[in-house]
Amino acid sequence: MATMVLFVLIGASAYFGQVTDGLIRTGMRDQVSWGFYIGNFTFLVGVAAAAVVLVIPAYIYDWKPIKEIVLIGELLAISAIIMCIAFVMVDVGRPERTWHFLLPNFPRSLLAWDVLVLNGYLAINALVAFHIMYRGYFGKPYNKKWVLPLVLLSVPAAVSIHTVTAFLYSGLAARSYWNTAILAPRFLTSAFCSGPAIILILLQILRRYWKFDIKDEALHKIAELMAYAMFINLFLLGAEIYREYYSDTHHLIHHEYLFSGLHGHMSPVAPYAWASVIASTVAFLLFLIPKTRKNFLTLNIGAVLIYFGVYVEKGIALVIPGFTPSMLGEVYEYAPSFTELQVAMGVFGVGAIVFTALLKTALPVLRPEDAVGPAAEAAAEASA
Amino acid sequence: MTDTKKSRHYESSLPMVSRRNFVKSGVLGGVAAYLAACDTNTQEEFFAKRFTELTPEALKERIAWLEKHYEKTYGEAFKVGTEGPIPDVLFGYALDLSRCVGCRRCAYACVSENNLSRDPQVHYIRVLEQPKGTGLDLHLANPYYERDHVPEEGHVYLPVACQQCENSPCERVCPVGATWKEPDGVIVVDYDWCIGCRYCMASCPYGARKFNWGAPKMTTGDSLAVKVLSAKPKGEGRFEVIVEEALDAPERLQPPHIMPTVVKRPFLDAKGNRFMTETLPVADTNPAARSTTRYRFEVVAKEAPATSSKDDEYGYFLDAVNPDTHYLGNRPRKKGVVEKCHFCLQRTRNGEYPACAEICPVGSRKFGNLLDPDSEIRYVLANKRVFVLKEELNTRPKFFYFFGV
Amino acid sequence: MRPTPLALVLSATLAFLGCYGEGKRGDEMPRFPDHKEIGSTTHSAANADPSSADIDEFAVQAKAPPISEGYFPCSDCHADMETNRERRELEDEHDSVVLKHGTRERWCFDCHDPDNRDELRLASGTKIPFEKSYRLCGQCHGPKLRDWRAGVHGKRTGKWNGEKEYLLCVHCHNPHAPLFAPLVPKRRPRAPHEITFSKD
User: Fold this and answer.
1) pLDDT tens column, B216-247
2) What span, in angstroms and rounded, lies between the C-alpha atoms of A229 and A211?
3) C 144-183 residues with CB below 8 A of B?
């Protein structure tokens, strides 16, 4: 926790410098006008959307082992959305004017949509989670009449946040790298890998250190779902790569920059791109084969690989090649500046603190023997 | 984190609601503190309305406030115009690729006229050098060419700025409606409304939109170092000064002398036309002589600025702020907002040609009203081989490239 | 399952988005002329006979003809000089004139009037003042004259919607050697990695 507070302080001081001097403190320039911040934002939207991987089996198929942990997914979604909003905030040039979003260019601007659906999704998850936590505090079960419609609504809402985020990119005819119909499906499938990868590892940590009762089969089910999602994700990536390389038009130049480089020298993103594809493929195989899926060592290796693979794919490998070469053919080798890395650290710190705080608040629900206040009294009365 | 003592849980689990409030009040307090720390301009703009929604009275107030603020900041009287579009006018621009020699005078004329930041450098116009025979493969274009003389054998030049699209992606994607198309066809930015998200920069197929990464500075002498050729007293402490701009100005002058207060802008010729430069001496085949830009203007000063005759003695740089501005045009911007070419609104809405068109030494830039069948621009469309950049994107630019020969 | 409010809102918005065209100011926008109009444009300058009406009917000359200081009127010297029509190396006053303009075919008196040096002379023998030298140039360069008259060849200043100013051909082209001399370009813009933070 102290580490996280330190992260936030470092981030805050870096952000203060950025506000004072301007975004010139970052590595972004006119040629590459979005970078590390927006890459992280995009990735985290996927993490947030991934809560539905738990919601669907839990509430729609009423599968008990996952039902017990779905709340954790919702709390993760809340933290991820808060980080998303923070990443957009640190990226804008005039943060004090973000209230202008209240008078949006709606419905024409996808960014106006994005603000709407992100906040909507945050509201849904917050309502559900706080309702469950509030009732749990008094030792009562949650109110189905309230929760179920909201939870069901969170499924299309999760799809919508990532679809809108993908549309935000794919609607730009100027950027051929993003201007593809399968960007939204790719976003969704990769999101259903990255978010659950975090959840998998989190659940094991909670099980070990916080003595949560989490069943193995729940973890394996999540991994299985991830395998399907990763297959579709890799298949779509392959379809994209085939189209670009076989038709060999001017648009190929962005993929060339991503996987090899231009003008005879390797681009700095190429190693990451290859590592990402390889990591995702290996993880897919690990999660596909039941034996390695059920072995916790290989399961965790797979989760880490997937996290890495998708983090690169939705960050570096999405944003940078979209801008490189620029609209006038210029190659600017963008790399995040020290300021950007520090600010991002701070944002992740905030996310971690929010998540931890939420988790501790939710303890009475997640671990009934830990109940405090009225719930504990009620339990004591019942046992007496 | 791993501490599971009950009392701790009790503490950390109960006050969640108040914690949220704490966070919320923290955010609000942060905004308040941020605003308190900012200059008055930021505070004023925080509550500013979008230009299109200002009532006439509110607009008057806003303009008065701005003019005072700019005068305080830059030390000379500013005019912030709000001239509206002229009825039955749709601006169009055409550029003759068979003439452009890539001398970049347009780019720098634009910098002076439109108060672009010299540091960090902002240019609306980017001149691309292309090897001949490559069509328009922009991936072979080079905006950073350095030549002793232009045009370079075997190359063509393609200046690119905002294309003022009829179907403009930037306007479509702006989340807060801070950029829109005026009835005369110019896409403008409300610098007080832009939040700096840069979505428009991602959407623009022409790389035309520029961001103020840092606080714009206009008086660094970059490209505006001048030497004084003559200074004639005009009475009442005024002097008519003719200066010659350095071809390749030093980054900073040591020590920097700012020109005394300019009362009439540079770019005034004898008839009061702005921005008539001393056009190329034709009979002179010495390239250097044909490449200088001279300005004539009046200054108020205690004594005449020192004249210089040496070739490389650029003892002054112009206080490069142009106080003749337009709200949606060249009024000073600040860091964190997007800007771009706006067809010199402050000039063109008053009937003048854009600065780049006036400075072009080879006359390759044509400007006019697309709705007037007798305008230069319509002549080009009717009689020349015209194309637009990236037409497959259906942006329908009002900036045309043509071959005059 | 009942449709949720959000779903209703979404579908309604999508339908709205589908028929949502230009911005709210769309109705006042002037219409861009279509190809038919542009193709059949009757531009007065385009159809003008290059040798007919003078340009000063609709534009004003921005500057006097660029004659070297102290030379005009030419008759000051030439009035009592013999006219020598012979092709030769020029000496004395005009040694700076190097003819790079159809050198083999052309000589001074194709353009300068041998009897009155203060005027120019068309092929027909018609005499014209230096201010109208474009008519002389237009004898050979018809299409250029036509474009120039329309303000498309060369530099057009003044007002785009009012009084136009024109420069003569000879303001930009040395009539004896019309090809442009090369120019020194202005400094290249800074590349993105060269744009860094600096305290002022």
Assistant:
1) 987 654 445 677 788 888 877 777 777 776 65
2) 30
3) 147, 150-162, 165, 167, 170-174, 177, 180-183
